[in-house]
Design the sequence.
């Protein structure tokens, strides 16, 4: 969480966004919703509370987008939103963008990948937790595409199908 907050706060200081949707419910045994924990930390760092839109029910990426979009609609005019900047795990950025393409099409999308693994992204294969996350994405994405949870990102080559997933 500290790395995500540092990234978000730094981007806000650079003027990269006016509003920040933080989405995440009670996952991994948390007593408080992930969005609330992140929001509290960002406010302690100096982010004005008025910048935050918190969505506290989502438990997966699809829900982050669907529930987050609904929550954003309560706080602002969705028609005025032309672009989004996704802040998320370095190993999952393609899936995040594919999920947005599926559930909130028509946006210009940018991504800020957060690497919390302690090794450079280009050396992901040298760190067991990082390697496990990356390989998990190679397994998930084709299955999620087939299930209709994701769409290919406009303007990007199709996701590679390597032929050895389960």
Sequence:
């Amino acid at each position: 969480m500290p790395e995500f907050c540092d990234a978000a706060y730094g981007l806000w200081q650079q003027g990269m966004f006016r509003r920040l949707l933080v989405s995440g419910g009670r996952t991994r045994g948390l007593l408080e919703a992930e969005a609330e924990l992140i929001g509290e930390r960002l406010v302690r760092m100096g982010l004005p509370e008025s910048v935050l839109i918190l969505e506290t029910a989502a438990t997966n990426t699809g829900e982050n987008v669907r529930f987050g979009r609904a929550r954003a609609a309560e706080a602002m005019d969705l028609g005025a939103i032309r672009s989004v900047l996704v802040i998320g795990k370095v190993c999952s950025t393609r899936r995040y963008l594919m999920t947005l393409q599926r559930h909130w099409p028509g946006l210009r999308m940018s991504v800020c990948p957060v690497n919390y693994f302690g090794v450079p992204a280009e050396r992901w294969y040298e760190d067991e937790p990082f390697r496990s996350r990356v390989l998990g994405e190679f397994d998930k994405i084709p299955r999620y595409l087939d299930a209709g949870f994701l769409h290919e990102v406009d303007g990007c080559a199709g996701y590679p199908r390597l032929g050895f997933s389960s």
About this structure: The radius of gyration is 16 Å. The beta strands are 20-23, 52-55, 83-89, 108-114. The first strand starts at residue 20 and ends at 23.
